[in-house]
Amino acid sequence: MSDEVILVDCPTCGKEVIWDAQHTWRPFCSKRCKLIDLGEWAAEERRIASQPDRSDSEGWSEDEDNVTRDY
Ligand SMILES: [Zn+2]
């Protein structure tokens, strides 16, 4: 009975994951799914996509311009 395979469902995507030492991210199927479950994946993506040189005041005035022109 010691060779019985334990399968768990990844909480994020539902994929079956074999519960053993080789699967570092169990019960998640991957690091990505673990990060998604922790809510960190979105934060990480935002950090990568963000442009640090874009200033808040520029974005704000652009929005105002668009509103003025369109309406
Ligand atoms: Zn998954």
Give an overview in words.
- The protein has one domain (1-54): Erythroid Transcription Factor GATA-1, subunit A (Erythroid Transcription Factor GATA-1, Chain A).
- Helix content is 46%, strand content 8%.
- The model has no long low-confidence stretch (mean pLDDT 78).
- A two-stranded antiparallel ribbon has the order 1-2.
- It is elongated, with a radius of gyration of 22 Å.
- With 71 residues, the chain is mainly alpha-helical.
- It is built from 3 helices and 2 strands.
- The site of zinc ion has 8 residues, from loops.
Short summary of the structure?
It contains three helices and two strands; from the N terminus they run E-E-H-H-H. The protein has 71 residues and is mainly alpha-helical. The structure holds zinc ion.
H/E element sequence: EEHHH
Helix content: 40-55%
| Strand element count | 2
Helix/strand class: mainly alpha
Please mark out the parts with pLDDT under 50 across 5 or more consecutive residues, or reply none: none
- β-strand amount: 5-15%
What's the CATH H-level superfamily name? Erythroid Transcription Factor GATA-1, subunit A
Major β-sheet annotation: 2 strands, antiparallel
Number of domains: 1
Ligand catalogue: zinc ion
